[in-house]
Amino acid sequence: MPARPRSSLALVRPVAALVTALLVGGVALTAPAAADETAGPALTLSVTADGLAAGGSADEPAVLGTSPASAALSVVVTNTGTEAVSGLDVSTTVVRNGSVGEPVCDQDRSAVVEPGAVVRCAVTVSGVVAGRLHEDISTATARTVPGDAEVSAVTPFYATSVDGSVTVGDRVWLDSDGDGRQDDGEPGLAGVRLTVTGPDGLAVPVVDALGQVRGPQTTAPDGTYAFTGLAPLPDGGRYTVAVDPTSTTLDGLVPTLSGVGDPSSDSSTGSATSSALEPGAQDLSLDFGFVPSPVTPPPPAMATVALTVDASPEPAVVGTTITVKGTVRRAGKAFAATTVPEHADDGSASWTKVATVRSSTKGTLSATTKAVRTGSYRLRYAGDPTTEAGVSPADHVEVRLAVVRLTISAPSSVTKGRAVKVTGSIKREGKGYKAGTTLEFRGSGDDGWRRVKAVRSSSKGALSVSVTPSGSGDYRYRYAGSTTTGAATSGADHVVVKPKPPAKPKPKTYKNCTALTKVYPHGVGRSGAKDKGGDVTDFVRDTKTYDLNKKSDRDKDGIACER
């Protein structure tokens, strides 16, 4: 917005220029300060509390309801001055008795509040207990726009509440005749500890009418007790009183019969729940009777059980079968019983059921399971009325991936442009394995391997593929592995690629050996011919050319012009 011209009178802004007010039930209870006669900034602050027409003074506090009480306050700030303000900050602070929440206003703190504008804030006051005065103070501060001069307003609020507490309790006694009723002359039990919870026995702290958590109580010498000053519960809520069975007074005693006769003189077992109580009401029918504990003979001695377990094979391959064998003996003798083999992964304290197996009359048992993860196996017996439960020592089994081994074989050399057959094998745990592999090649002087083609082995694990090398280098087979089988790579086999030999001249007749040996330096002969002298072996074997130059074969050994 455009800058507002600053009034020359706005330089004098004493706090006394503010007006504070309390608005209760729509009626403003104002307490104007001695306002400066000079026009300038001013705020008016008012409070509305649940529509109650009181609260502006300690002599006339607002009555908020039954203790502990709460109410919604409305704090209204009005710019009653002649200048706009911004940075409005509203706070409410408790002086005594209760608590308040943070004010929530309908306008952002950074907004500009024009003269005559109103900002409304909501704040909750709670925990106002009877017998004490509640006091809080609301404060509003802001700064002029322009000028940045502070202006503020303060107003108090007073309230109280009505005492409407309730009482629950009665008596803990020794039921001498064991009939479940309180009879004349039956003594009370002193020093019994009791707790109160609510509503309906839920384990939540009970807060009395003064906002204090009610702790346990102990019975008086005559066995009586009472939880007084409890806050009424909404929606028909009920309090529950429970006996602490660990109280020393109750040693050797057990609850008597419950629910016998009139509720005012009968007994409850363990805990008792009150009726729904209106404010100011009481329920003194929560009684607890006890009788001496009956003598119980000691239980017969339990037989002990001994278990053993053996899991195999060790190690095991993922997905294969593990056999869990065991024995069960009771009091040193073979025992036919239902047992549970269990498994725990390495590093885990949690045991998982593998199966349910009944041992034979000889006390032996066997179960099978799939090998999944490394861990331990044990045997557990749950026990029976005459036999103690038992657990065997654990037997550890390593579970691993199956081992694969690959081989490769390729010719040591090949003429460039010719194909070679690369063979090999793949075995899993020593047996031929049908699986997909990859043939890879690394050229001489290269660092990395590249894929040539996918090769699937036969059912017996044989590998074979024909490829045409682009140059000298190494070949190998690689298996990528699976969820049950480890990856593997064969060794490398080197292949040398030789250049192609020069093309042979076309067969022709040469004039003499001088002309022939210019093309065939060591002569030319039939396929399979041998030099009579035995010295010449590197002549060219070309039957057609020999036949055309047979006249130059002086020693008739099938080789013309050998030398």
Quick tags:
Immunoglobulin-like, mainly beta, disordered N terminus, 44% strand, 5 domains, 45 strands, 563 residues
Structure description:
By secondary structure, the protein is mainly beta. It has 5 domains: 8-162, Immunoglobulin-like (Sandwich), CATH 2.60.40; 166-292, Immunoglobulin-like (Sandwich), CATH 2.60.40; 305-399, Immunoglobulin-like, CATH 2.60.40; 404-498, SOR catalytic domain (Immunoglobulin-like), CATH 2.60.40; 513-560, no CATH class. Helix content is 2%, strand content 44%. Strands 1, 2, 3, 5, 7, 8 and 9 form a 7-stranded mixed β-sheet that branches. Strands 25, 26, 27, 29, 30 and 31 form a 6-stranded antiparallel β-sheet that branches. Strands 34, 37, 38, 40, 41 and 42 form a 6-stranded mixed β-sheet that branches. Strand 35 and strand 36 form a beta hairpin. The model is unreliable at 1-38 (pLDDT under 50).
Give a topology summary.
Elements: E1 19-24, E2 27-32, E3 43-49, E4 62-66, E5 69-79, E6 84-96, E7 99-100, E8 104-105, E9 118-128, E10 134-145, E11 150-162, E12 166-174, E13 193-197, E14 217-218, E15 224-230, E16 240-243, E17 253-255, E18 271-273, E19 282-283, E20 288-292, E21 305-312, E22 316-317, E23 321-330, E24 333-334, E25 338-345, E26 352-353, E27 357-358, E28 364-370, E29 375-381, E30 390-391, E31 395-397, E32 399-400, E33 404-409, E34 413-415, E35 420-428, E36 431-432, E37 436-443, E38 450-456, E39 462-467, E40 473-479, E41 488-489, E42 493-498, H1 513-519, E43 524-525, E44 540-541, H2 543-548, E45 559-560
